[in-house]
Amino acid sequence: MTTEFERLKFRLDAGHMSRREFLGRASALGLSAAAASVLPKSAMAGEPIKGGHLKIATGNGASTDTLDPAYNANDATFLAHRHCGETLLNVTPSSDLEHRLAEEFASKDNVTWQFKIRKGVEFHNGKPVTAEDVLKTIERHSDEKSKSGARGLLTDIDRLSADGDTFKVTLKSPNADFAYYMADFHLVIQPNGGKDDPATGIAAGPYIVEANQPGVRYAFKKFPNYWDSNIGHVAESEVLVINDATARNGALQSGRVHMINLVDPKVADLLKGKPGISIKNVSGRGHYTFPMHVDTSPFDNEDLRMALKLAIDRDEMVDKILRGFGSVGNDMPVNASYPLFDTSIPQRRYDPEQAAAFYKKSGHDGTPIVLRTADSAFPGAVEAAQLFQQSAAKAGIPIEVRREPSDGYDTQVWNKQPFCASYWGGRPTQDQMYSTVYLSTAAWNDTRFKNADFDRFLMAARSELDPAKRKKNYSEMGLILRDKGGVIVPVFNDWIDAVSDKVGGFVPDPNWGLMNNMAGLKCWLVA
Amino acid sequence: MSFIVKLVAQRMALGILLLFAVSVLIFAGTQILPGDIAQAILGQSATPESLANLREQLGLNDPAYIRYFHWLGGVLTGDLGTAMSSGQDIATSIKGRLWNTLFLAFWAAVVAVPLAIILGLIAVRYRNGWVDKLISGLALASTSFPEFFIGYVLVYFFAVKWQIFPGISTVYDGMPFGERIQAIALPATALTLVVLAHMMRMTRAAILNVMQSAYVETAELKGLSAFNVIRKHAFPNAIAPIINVVMLNLAYLIVGVVVVEVIFVYPGMGQYLVDHVTKRDVPVVQAVGLIFAAVYISLNIIADIAAIVANPRLRHPK
Questions:
Q1: Chain A within 8 Å of B49 (Cβ-Cβ)?
Q2: Entry pTM
Q3: A53-58 and A259-260: which strand pairing?
């Protein structure tokens, strides 16, 4: 037990483990008192300190951004909305649901869902948050003409109603995960659902928008009437958009900002050695993919797909592309950070001999298989494709790497060409991840995968009330996709943030970087 | 005098004609960009229905020439339209960005132009000596390094190591003037280093050229000091090519600084343009392109006119 404790302590010191995780595991060993005594001073959770001016630098912002939550699509606007807006529910780091504007929710049959809206909560314009506002918000996002990024989640809604402080949703078919949809970051509750002017930033979050300069900066000050005293510690928070990774590092190192996101794995190790800065990484649900169109030659051959899956060296990719900041994938889009994940599914490894055998069996004519890639597919996508080419060559499988321009890659190559490099950010539940990409009718079926058994398991899991049975279903689906599907998932990448030691309360969250982008609300400044 | 008025009018008319040609080119260019604005706006979270809805709303289904004339009509009446991606008024958002760009370009030019010319004069005065070689060597070295390298070196020393100037130059409305100047110190320095050598070398070459002439020899023979020969006789006759290269570099400072803007997070026109190209936000790209073209053309007209005015032979054509 002591060695296990030493190992935990080592992992904590090395920064591979969060303080919370450490305490949790140590107390599982019955060692919480001992654990508390080895926690480094900076990690000692003092009481949150109120006040101060926090500065966050983020990448991925653009001057084309808007504060309309329907278009919420990048880190900068997501961060901004976490400051000024609030959703009905939130997904916690352990994938449970946390009550935010909904103080209760329930469903007896997975078809009718009731959300009781918290009383005494105000919008920034002084109006109370009512079930009617919630209804209008969901109505706006689910409207047929809506351009909301969350519209795909809401197509199954049959009827919405508001009764007193209760908001009711009736679905066309059962969905056990529907409550998770209400935690989607597009579904920020706005006065009158944002139907008057959606881009004002007036919502019910802990911070009021003071300055809104898309692609430059967002400034916030504390909303004095915010209902929850547990979050929103700093008096002022500022989000600076710094898209250049080196400039972001520079800003943190020179003390101009307190935290940065999207740290390049290559520099994460270098930053680690700097005094006053710590790297916070957590394995997330985002994953790199090589989707193959299973209806297009030569990828319509299951043996060839298996040969390619076996010919990729996943460990090498974690090592060289992610520099250890990630974990190997198993050719399915979910991993252990999802609820109801079956960890007993065997991990696929690089096996050039078996790959060669499958390749021979497939009867492929030996012409090079074209793999398209671009720098924008995911960080290191060009190098990853080259590594794939080399590991496949050892199995006698010829791959030709074709580099495409980053500009327009998402519209011209991804989901159009039969084999390319791509990326998925992950979803809160297995159902959402599978139904967004791998269901026969999925809007973004980037592997053209259509499997009746797979679809049946997914639908059955939606109406199933027993978690054990749902888990069984998801396990079957994972296996089908892993063995018959068209996607190669070599790695899951970590979220990597870098944080100054002037910041207290930072606990990484697998849902997204910067504590699911709530670092500005949950952290505080230590003197 | 009437000759000058006629000249200016002629050049302006040519410039406007050129602008129209450029507007057609810009429009054609934006049409052949691959990809689709609706897809770019919604990203991976979009669905086919929401894409169709957005395309419909943005009028992307009209033919290209209708959209061109529609846009041109708007521009001529001072209406640049609204950005497709964010729904903001383009003229309003460009105003702030353009002001920022001009502010940075102005201060970079205030430092760079006199410095380049003075260094050029000094180099001529001590030509082929070690001073000349040192000046030329340093200026060429600073120009040869890519802008991002100079930027990162400046950030590393002045922002991270010594913490004299901020490494990020975010400026905003209502920022005090002093802070604003401090914020742009590093990007302005980087830009100065980038444009310095071109102007300095041109000044040196132009004056050296004149120094071969008979009247300079005469000036020397009548006993003027070396510096006075350059100041009174060589420089005025070399001014036309110098103005040309200065204007070229001023244009560069306004339209070509996107790399420096990105490194220093400066909210200028370059970053604004790149963001909107990525999002296929055609109205903004066209508006910015047109402004850049106008800047380029007008600076070139100024250079042209100044060169003619500075040259008596061109001023009084026979």
A1: yes
A2: 0.80
A3: parallel
